[in-house]
Structure formats: structure tokens, C-alpha cells
Specification:
Structural class: alpha+beta
Largest sheet: 4 strands, antiparallel
Number of strands: 4
Radius of gyration: 27 Å
Distance between the termini: 93 Å
Order of helices and strands: HHHHHEEEEH
Strand content: 25-35%
């Protein structure tokens, strides 16, 4: 049986429209998936912090917030330990924590990777800066990490904050 031309046209329009709707939805879904995965990758590239270096910073934060200053010192690079005694290191961290409070949140601002065969920090090192919100103040943290045997170790740490200037 043959449908009249207007019925066939209507039927064809429905199929085309429903097919194009499916194509549009598929395209939209693909764009959403691409955009979300691209934003994740862009974030990782923006900071450029290797996973092992980020783990070192996370461990530092946990130890600082818990008051485990001995652990920070003992897990640090030889360059850190040769420049300051355990007591001096602990006193500095104790003072920072008393004045600023615990670390609440960080926003990555910059990072610089350096490769040097000799000098103060031979090998692969990273200098990473964050704008940081503590309990009682805001400031800027700078981490210097050095890579040794596939691990990143703390070789330097500094904080600047208006609260520390008082």
C-alpha cells in the first residue's frame, strides 16, 4: 500500500527529525565529555606538578597541621637538614603554626623546574608557589623540592604573610 505523498513526507520528516535529534544529542554529549576531560588535563598541565612532588607537599601539610614537625625534618632532603638543626626547624614551624594557624587551602600560582648537574641543589628540583589561606591569615608559601631516587624531598620552605611582619 502506498501512502499519499503528504503522509510519506510527514513520516520522512519525523524520521529525519528524530534522527537529527539523536545526532544532536550525541554530538552534545560528546562535546560535554570532551570539555570535561580537556579541563581536567588543562588543570594538570597548568600546575605541572609531578604526582610524587604533590604527595610530598600533601605529607608536609598533614604533618604541619598535626604539629609533627620532627617528621617534616626527618623526611626532608639532606640540604634542609644540613642548614638547620632539628630544634631550629621545629621552633620555626611551631612559631608559624601559632601565628598563622593550620593550612586550610592553597591556590597554585607558579612552578619552576630546574635541572642542574652541580650547585646548591644538584639534580632535578622544583620551586612551587601557592597563595595559601591559614586559620588566622593569608600568605604565600614557597616549596623547594629536590628529586632523589624517584622521590621529591623538601629542600626549602618559606612563608610570607603580613601577620608575620607584626
Amino acid at each position: 500500500m502506498m501512502l499519499p505523498l503528504s503522509c510519506r513526507e510527514e513520516s520522512l520528516k519525523r524520521r529525519v527529525l528524530s534522527g537529527s535529534n539523536i545526532k544532536r544529542l550525541s554530538l552534545l554529549l560528546a562535546l560535554v565529555v570532551f570539555a570535561s576531560s580537556a579541563s581536567c588535563r588543562m588543570d594538570e598541565r597548568q600546575s605541572g606538578i609531578p604526582t610524587k612532588a604533590q604527595e610530598t607537599i600533601n605529607n608536609f601539610t598533614e604533618n604541619f597541621n598535626a604539629g609533627s614537625f620532627d617528621k617534616i625534618y626527618l623526611e626532608a632532603a639532606e640540604e634542609w637538614r644540613s642548614g638547620v638543626t632539628l630544634e631550629q626547624s621545629n621552633e620555626t614551624f611551631r612559631t608559624l603554626k601559632e601565628r598563622l594557624g593550620v593550612i586550610k587551602e592553597r591556590t597554585y600560582t607558579s612552578g619552576k623546574q630546574q635541572q642542574s648537574p652541580s650547585g646548591a641543589l644538584p639534580g632535578n628540583s622544583l620551586v612551587i608557589r601557592y597563595n595559601t589561606r591559614f586559620d588566622r591569615a593569608e600568605g604565600m608559601e614557597t616549596f623547594t623540592l629536590i628529586e632523589r631516587d624517584g622521590r621529591y624531598l623538601l629542600a626549602g620552605y618559606s612563608v610570607s604573610s603580613n601577620l608575620l611582619k607584626q
